[in-house]
Write a structure and sequence with these properties.
Shape: elongated
Order of helices and strands: HHHHH
Structural class: mainly alpha
Largest sheet: none
Oligomer: single chain
Number of helices: 5
Length: 96
């Protein structure tokens, strides 16, 4: 839960720390990989969209905030949260 919550304030740093700390815990590792994939793709995609639209597209940065809150709630309920767009990619890339 803390990984998702901290990713609101420290987007890429939080999941990397939890990935390294939770390698032997499948639940922590799976949530950290889902969070890392979501943060990475949304921040890269959001930055590209914001640059192309001269800043108007920066509203897209609200989406990872919403997904992080949903991930925090699901992890608190002992579930692995898979964000709608990046969830299947994390499974494919990191085998979680």
């Amino acid at each position: 839960m803390l990984c998702w919550l901290l990713s609101i304030f420290f987007p890429l740093l939080s999941p990397i720390i939890f990935m390294l700390v939770g390698k032997d815990r499948p639940f922590v590792y799976a949530n950290a990989m889902q969070c890392l994939t979501m943060d990475l793709l949304w921040w890269i995609g959001g930055t590209i969209i914001a640059v192309i639209t001269c800043g108007i597209g920066s509203i897209i940065f609200i989406v990872p905030l919403i997904f992080s809150i949903m991930g925090t709630i699901r992890a608190n309920n002992a579930e692995i949260y898979e964000p709608p767009i990046t969830g299947p990619l994390a499974k494919k890339w990191f085998n979680v």
